[in-house]
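I hope you will forgive my troubling you with a question about protein structure. You will find the record immediately after this paragraph.
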Amino acid sequence: MLENSTQPSDMLTRNSTRKSKSDPVAPDSVLVDALDGFKLDTQRSYTAQVHDALQQAILRGKIPPRTALSEATIASIINVSRTPVREALAQLAEEQLVLIYRQVGTIVAPVRLSLIEEGRFVRSTLECANHVHLAQTITPEQIAEFGRLLEQQRRAVADGQMDLFCELDELMHRRLFEFAGRDHVWPMLEPMKRQFDRVRWLLAGQVSGHAERALREHEQMLAQMAARDVAGLGASVSMHINHISEHLAALRQQAPESYFVD
């Protein structure tokens, strides 16, 4: 289980902010909102379900960095004992998504900038290699599916549905690996890109024009793939992934500084 050497008194707060540094939100209210709609499946592991629900809420920014996570509150909200909650939080600590302070409490970990850079490097390397190869083998049916995913993204952007756009973005990137017969690469990438994903979701909700820009880049990638423009596609994919660095600077101007570390 991961713990942090920083003094708990410096890290653990009972208030969290969502979009404004001056607008405190009680952590229990944040948890209620984030877990709204959760339905427990009695046929599946309770620990796994609690873990998945909390992981997605953290990755999507529904539970902001440094929000206090009460085992008792979470257990009450989703109607389970504290044991699966404690086990789920231990797993999230191993994934560097929460920080656990013995005898004090647990908070959502701030976004680690060094891990964003690792995620950017891994994604840029693997996606460039995969997509350049795919451009040489992609079928008309796959091009058509790629186009349908982009049309759904256009509608999501036009309707202001940023959560849906991010889900479709994720699906598109996964499908491009599957088109190339590399079905297991995307799941292998997921542990290495979690901090990267946290920033992507925050960008979609807080940085104006991020989704529109990403959509334009997806459209360019489709056109180059259909034309089998290998050189142009490689450059476009690299630029698309590496834009995270530029957008991160804009995000840090809008989100509380406490959201980030190193």
Notes: Strands lie at 16-17, 24-25, 98-101, 105-108, 111-112, 260-261. The longest helix spans residues 230-254.
